[in-house]
Amino acid sequence: xxxxxxxxxxxxxxxxxxxxxxxxxxxxxxxxxxxxxxxxxxxxxxxxxxxxxxxxxxxxxxxxxxxxxxxxxxxxxxxxxxxxxxxxxxxxxxxxxxxxxxxxxxxxxxxxxxxxxxxxxxxxx
Length: 125
What we know:
Helix content: over 70%
Radius of gyration: 14 Å
Shape: globular
């Protein structure tokens, strides 16, 4: 049995970037569901990176929403919460396949921007 170890901030950053790249490859191959899931992976890993960097909890899904709320309040930027909501919708798309191509394309751009904003916070505290 392998033991789990906690990832470093940099490992979360690296995983988030990998998932962003993987998502683009999946979408380019026409695999929208897998691309959606990879975008959610990038979102989660970016939030775990910034939370770890700041000493906040982030291990459970509801903690990720709390991280976004704290960042939005700290930065006085409510757009973070709405962008995170788009990421959650893309995640739901993985399970339910309900997003049409134009909406998914717009949502992908929003999630990519969100993840990159969060990663910049983790990399430049």
